[in-house]
Amino acid sequence: MMAGAIDIRISGLVVIVASFFVAMILSVMSLPSSAPSVVGYLRPEWVLLVLIYWIIALPHRVGLVVAWCIGLLTDILLGDLLGQHGIGFLIVAYIAQSLYQRLRMFSIWQQSLMIFVIVGLYQLINFWIESVVGQAEWSLWYLLPSVVSALVWPWVFLVLRYLRRIFNVT
Amino acid sequence: MLGLSILSLALMATDHFSDFLDEFRASLTVIVTPVIVVADIPRRTVVGLQGTIATRDHMQSRILSLEQELLLLRAKTEKMAALTSENDRLRDLLGSAAKLQDNVLVAELIGVDPDPERHEVTIDKGSVDGAFVGQPVLDAEGLMGQVVEVSKYISRVLLISDLSHSVPVQVARSNLRLVAQGTGMTGQLELMHVQATADIEIGDLLVSSGLGDRFPVGYPVGVVNRIEHDPGRPFADVTATTSALLDRSRHVLLVFTEDRMDRNARNANDGRSD
């Protein structure tokens, strides 16, 4: 009985880690060099979406500390200031955690709307930090990832829920 | 929540104002290296498939054109050898230091920064291969950029077209010294502080001047493509296109200049004696 419970916990951990791994791959995968540079702005915040899903689904397993660690790894992956995505992910995780009961009740499109707001806030935090460091110039392009993320959310949600049910992640 | 926020802020400040965290960063990069390598698989597969699927005719014509190119380059190298010896002799006569021999290491691009605002690429050589921060990076056509972050197996390269990058250049024809700054647009450079009367023309080749001790002398950087004189402003508005194919080159060269390696060795020794 005990051993079975531990097995399930470990398989759940594998699913969660694998989903973050895939999300990170998607967020750095290079576009074909023939694509115009505008396409670069159309990339949804994959890692953030996966994080929000797990916080809504399993708030007792994926919390602020996990969010912060994933954020640090994202910093390294994207070559940004260490802690920049850390704090962004932390704030997003905090919001998602305090809203998770309400978010679970929402229909999937209402959730998308919330995702738009949350990712928009995250972009804004990123932009603030980058402008303090002196790298950024404001343009409306900064808001595009939040729109795309909101549009992609239903599919991320459905795929991850399917995986969670198949592998019985609790 | 509060603790982690403060920790993030502290990390950001430390990372921005000092290089204290570089070691930590390099070790964390080893963790994310698999992500970067896996993310490169689709491209690798496509390139591999193109190789296997290509028709015999296509391959033959490609071999032919490569052979022709090889012949052309050989002929150039022959001339080069003669010129090098002549150059050495002249330098001997002048009593100046001999031209430094540059060693190169071929690296492959394995990732591109997903942020279109930032011109950074990841290459598959790291500290185990001898890459170091500040190392110049070339492609077959010219100067590409410099290494800005080194971890064990991979490094990040800042391209010369990045908004935050500048490279000291000189006009090959008139030896006029200038600074070429990145514009944030792929393959575009902007020349800073060009006097309205400066001897510069459209089509002039810009080569690295070696000032600033970062880039070696004489590598092509770009070609001037636009000069505009605005009487209301003190300097002319001059832009250039980069010689290096910044968004197309897959193979790049890491340059090891001898004096720099000496200096690195000396720094390492200094570090030990402290």
Radius of gyration of chain A: 16 Å
Total beta strands of chain A: 0
* Overall 3D form of chain A: globular
Give the low-confidence spans of chain A: none
Oligomer: heterodimer
- The arrangement of helices and strands of chain A along the chain is HHHHHH
Strand content of chain B: 25-35%
Sheet of most strands of chain A: none
**Order of helix and strand elements from N to C terminus of chain B:** HHHHEEEEEEEEEEEEH
Question: What's the number of extended β-strand segments of chain B?
Answer: 12
- Structure classification of chain A: mainly alpha
Query: Number of helical segments of chain A?
Result: 6
The amount of helix of chain A comes to over 70%
- Mean pLDDT across the residues of chain A is 87
Describe the protein.
The complex is a heterodimer of chains A (170) and B (274). Chain A has 170 residues and is mainly α. Chain A is built from 6 helices and no strands. In chain A, helix 1 runs antiparallel to helix 2 (46-57), helix 3 crosses helix 4 and helix 4 (84-105) packs antiparallel against helix 5. Chain A is globular, with a radius of gyration of 16 Å. The relative contact order of chain A is 0.15. Chain B has 274 residues and is of the alpha+beta class. Chain B has helices at 2-17, 22-39, 41-53, 56-94, 258-273; strands at 102-112, 120-123, 136-138, 143-150, 155-159, 166-171, 177-182, 188-195, 205-208, 220-228, 235-242, 251-257. In chain B, the strands form 2 sheets. In chain B, strands 1-2-5-4-3-12 form a 6-stranded antiparallel barrel. Chain B has a 6-stranded antiparallel beta barrel with strand order 6-7-8-11-10-9. Chain B is globular, with a radius of gyration of 22 Å. The interface between A and B is large, with 39 and 43 residues.
